[in-house]
Write a structure and sequence with these properties.
- With about 220 residues, the chain is mainly beta.
- The protein has a domain at about 95-220: Immunoglobulin-like.
- The protein contains one helix and eleven strands, in the order αβββββββββββ.
- It has a five-stranded antiparallel β-sheet, with no helix packed on it.
- The longest helix has 21 residues, at about 30-50.
- It starts with about 30 loop residues before the first helix and ends with a strand.
């Protein structure tokens, strides 16, 4: 290579290297967006769990369609009448009086007879009952009528002459009247009443074979 006229070597130019990529300063854009989305999600959850202030909770005790009662309105009785009307008491059932052991004809061929009233001693069989002296009353109901008679609702009472009531008890195995009584048949029942010192006491036995039927009343002594 010939030297240049100036006596200096010519510098051979080299291709310059491409400049390094320029780094941009870090900006937390993604982090900011993520935080905003998280905040919106939390607000949505909280707002969905609480009712809006513009939509109050309904009152379960109030019904919009139910009219309010008027306390001043007078409603007539279904069967008529007023609170000032006096209704006469129903007439008592007829009573047939007779002696112990006799037959009382009470209604449409139905008759009642007290077969016996005897002293006994019973032992309490259920809570609340007591053991002691008692009276057993044997009763027979006869149906001589043309229709069957039901004696399921028959009842019997015993009262001493001094006003002492005989207290019914399940002790002593009583067998009350029950069932249907066909025409021409009879039914018997035993009733037990607690009564102090029963032997020889004067008593009254009152019997009705059915609710509303005539009452038979028998008087005599415990034997």
């Amino acid at each position: 290579m010939n030297p240049s006229p100036t006596g200096r070597r010519r510098r051979t130019s080299r291709p310059s290297a491409s400049p390094a990529p320029r780094r941009l300063p870090f900006r937390p854009i993604a982090a900011t967006a993520l935080a905003a989305l998280t905040a919106l999600a939390l607000v949505g959850c909280v707002s969905s769990g609480r009712p809006s202030a513009s939509a109050p909770e309904p009152d379960p005790t109030r019904t919009a369609s139910a009219p309010k009662p008027d306390p001043t309105r007078t409603v007539p009785a279904p069967g008529g009448g007023t609170v000032d009307q006096q209704i006469p008491a129903p007439a008592p059932a007829p009573t047939v009086d007779t002696a112990l052991g006799a037959r009382a004809e009470v209604d449409s061929g139905v008759s009642i007879r007290v077969v016996s009233v005897t002293p006994t001693t019973v032992k309490a069989s259920t809570p609340g009952e007591v053991s002691g002296a008692a009276v057993r009353v044997a009763v027979v109901v006869t149906n001589a009528g043309k229709a069957a008679t039901n004696v399921d609702s028959a009842w019997v009472q015993l009262t001493a002459s001094d006003g002492t009531f005989g207290v019914g008890t399940s002790g002593g195995d009583p067998t009350p009247l029950s069932g249907e009584l066909p025409p021409g048949s009879s039914a018997s029942g035993d009733y037990v009443f607690m009564l102090p010192r029963p032997r020889g006491r004067s008593v009254t036995v009152t019997i009705s074979y059915s609710a509303g039927a005539p009452v038979a009343r028998f008087e005599g002594s415990v034997t």
